[in-house]
Specification:
mainly alpha
């Protein structure tokens, strides 16, 4: 086991916790709980970004033999999804928290379907979970198992990772669409426009 595992484990733990919290947001049916949980998510996301950025910035400045330098080399795969988190996810989480705060005056105020659909948006959960997934190869390698050491191991590992990202993305998209449909107002019953065939 390499000593830079001690540097990578807190980063992996924070990203994994953020991914789990983000995944549970759409299941919350109370506005106050949604607001509280988005606060946790903001704190975890900022912590993950700060830790990742600090390692990626400080690591290359060392001589190449320190634990933080080796940790930085392992985190290069996570840099791109972490950038998406910084650019897209944080802004959406802030807007979601503000929206939940508008309904959170009473403890049992239901969270509207529109808020839950926003919580299920793929740009909230997907980048966080992909970042957590991208940190895992570095952690596994630091633990003594190099998944990319040989082509025989690298091919299946890359395939499994790509399939994992695809499955996560499809799951988020389906859940978001389902909640977005619930948030839409029902069509007016008996409306002539709704009943008539579509004319092009």
């Amino acid at each position: 086991m390499d000593d830079h595992l001690t540097v990578l484990l807190p980063v992996a733990a924070v990203w994994l916790a953020a991914g789990v919290v983000a995944d549970g947001l759409p299941r919350l049916d109370r506005a106050r709980a949604l607001r509280r949980r988005t606060g946790w998510l903001s704190a975890l996301t900022l912590t993950g970004l700060l830790l990742t950025a600090a390692i990626l910035v400080v690591g290359p400045q060392s001589a190449g033999t320190t634990p933080i330098d080796r940790a930085a080399a392992g985190l290069t795969l996570a840099a791109a999804p972490a950038l998406v988190v910084a650019v897209c996810t944080l802004r959406r989480v802030r807007r979601l928290r503000a929206g939940a705060g508008a309904f959170a005056a009473a403890p049992d105020t239901p969270a509207p379907h529109g808020l839950r659909a926003a919580a299920a948006h793929p740009l909230i959960g997907l980048p966080l979970q992909v970042t957590a997934l991208a940190v895992l190869p570095a952690v596994v390698s630091a633990a003594g198992v190099d998944l990319l050491a040989t082509p025989a191991m690298a091919g299946p590992a890359i395939t499994v990772g790509a399939l994992g990202v695809t499955v996560i993305g499809v799951r988020h998209a389906l859940r978001h669409n389902r909640l977005a449909e619930r948030a839409m107002p029902p069509a007016a019953a008996g409306s002539p426009r709704a009943a008539s065939p579509l004319h092009v």
